[in-house]
Amino acid sequence: MAIRRLRPPPAIKVLEAAGAIADGRVRIVVSRNNLWAARVSSSGRPLEYRVYLEVSSGGEARVYSSDNGTIYRGYVGYPIISLMMLAGLLPRDAGIEERLKGINWFELNRRYKSYGKVMEVVLAERAPEPGLRREIEGFMYRVMSLLRRTRLYLDESLPQTYES
């Protein structure tokens, strides 16, 4: 199995990750040394993603997640982002997480078929005041900046390594 570098995600995936944390859909199953493993439940379907994160020195990590964005589109999916937040590798904001609680991201993505449109809908509903919107956008861009600087490599052998 090849190891390949993942691209930064669409920015909205940061909000989806924060919402997953607020909803209690991220369950850490391993947390030791430089390894974290979690199960992340989907917001709108009965799916559970397996997520692994093995941190190396120098701002890089090997990761695996069974979500479509990571596997098929080659970007850092929201399950990885949420695990990185819980592991303390990316910032969190409890107030923003609470504002993003209860969103059915699957349904919004299915309905609008555009991350840009979904972003508009979510921000209009959850942050109607300009100050709140700026706060959420600032948080999202801080996380994205860190994600762009972190070298994350998809390693499909991680599940076999830690589940066997």
Summary of the model, kept short:
The chain is built from 8 helices and 6 strands, in the order βαββββααααααβα.
- Strand arrangement across the biggest beta sheet: 1-6-5-4-3-2
* Shape by Cα distribution: globular
- Total strand segments: 6
Order of helices and strands: EHEEEEHHHHHHEH
- Mean pLDDT comes to 95
**Category by helix and strand content:** alpha+beta
How many helices? The count is 8
Percent range for β-strand residues: 15-25%
How would you characterize this protein structure?
With 164 residues, the protein is of the alpha+beta class. Helices cover 46% and strands 22% of the residues. The protein has a six-stranded mixed beta sheet with strand order 1-6-5-4-3-2. The longest helix has 20 residues, at 130-149. The model has no long low-confidence stretch (mean pLDDT 95).
Features of the shown structure:
single chain, 164 residues, alpha+beta, six-stranded mixed β-sheet, 8 helices, 6 strands, globular
Would you spell out the secondary-structure blueprint of this structure?
Layout: E1 3-5, H1 12-22, E2 26-32, E3 35-41, E4 48-55, E5 60-65, H2 68-71, H3 78-86, H4 94-99, H5 105-112, H6 115-126, H7 130-149, E6 151-155, H8 158-163
Parallel strand pairs: 5-6
Antiparallel strand pairs: 1-6, 2-3, 3-4, 4-5
